[in-house]
Amino acid sequence: MSWAWFHRFASPPYFYSLTLRLAPWLGWPAGLLIVGGLYGGLVLAPPDYQQSDAFRIVYVHAPAAWVSLMSYSLMAFAAAVGLIWRMKVAHAVAAACAPVGASITAVCLVTGMLWGQPMWGTYWAWDPRLVFELVLLFFFLGYMGLRSAIDDVSRADRASAVLAVVGVVNVPIVHFSVTWWNSLHQAPSVMRMQEAAMPASMLVPLLMSFLGFTLYFYAVMLVRARAEVLRRDRGGSWVRDVLAARGKAA
Amino acid sequence: MIREPSALHAAAQILRRDLKLAFRRPGEWLQPVAFFLIVTMLFPLALDPELSRLRQLAPGALWVAALLASILAIEFLFREDGRDGTLEQYALSGHSFAWLLLAKTAAHWLLTGLPLAIAAPLAALGLGAPAAALPGILAALLLGSVSLSLLGAIGAGLTLGIRRGGALLSLLVLPLAIPTLVFGARATQLAIQGDSLAGPLYLLAALGVFGLTLAPLAAAAAVRISLE
Q: Where are the domains of chain B?
């Protein structure tokens, strides 16, 4: 098997043109899916028989929870690739994942709190899943803090990559420990989602929302990564060529 | 001709050197212990000095104080040696860098983790823990502080050479230390209640062994990056 396709990603000009072409193909479907999923979920779907309209926040909350985990895994994966193969583009991807992932983690926490107020009677409960999301947010903040504290780009890349890899090794242990910790304290009156299958009118908008959030993350992340690659190579000749070509086209 | 020292010998030399340097300035390594005792003393003053209620708070107070004290101390783990080039000599010595850093971390644990663990029963008595609980508390702190020192070594390596890296160091290390805090506080709680604390102690030991195997590698990678 040839690895040429893999090595091509390491080339900033190739990555630049690839993301330039790819971003609209991710961004527009993401926008349509999110609008469609939210309309289906917030307007068309019937109210839940137990939670009535409050359950509708799941159309934002659950996709945000999924994307926050996915973005952390992707960040650690890209950081490891950058560390092992010394691939600058991979470091740029990892750097682009962090702010997007952190804000989506914050969205997940805030929507969870808004849902908790009517359902649990309190904005915050020390539920293991809430605590775990909070810890994830701190991992993101630590990663971004370390990156911004080091002036030299290549050092910042590799130091933060070590942190991301250490973090991802620790994530399952943290998850286990907070779950175990909570099971020893008195459990909050958590209302579990019914295991019974949702009707299609609820499920289809949820799936649309999941896919839309995922595509949205990739679109925004790639735009950020492209900007990051441009910023790093701002003195490079290919950037001049690209900008000159775009200037001609405009 | 000078014989190449073995890896074990090199590590022993580093351990001896660090301990000797520290004992010349006892004020420095005693500070985290003093900090730990002061913080645990603040809890009864700020909350409620009634012993039965303090006893409930004791595990949390002890472990949060121990976590903060070890963060405070770990900032200086690599700082001096990074500044005067000693770490670069270690990196060039031909021995495994991770192994030499493990020796440094071991010296650090002897100077901060061990005194913390020894001071913990004293602080626990002040927080209303019964005398029968003290051996358990000592064991929990002994095992837990190993993980804290090892995690701290990674953070200290990453923040080496960063100006005002102290706050950043706590932001990096404290989330990683959550499992140690959870299991350690649980072990302490069981000890105070007079129950068997074998379960959380095993988990603390497992965390320690896990850290011993992987953390020196991560710390070595981090210090190497910071040295460039």
A: 7-227
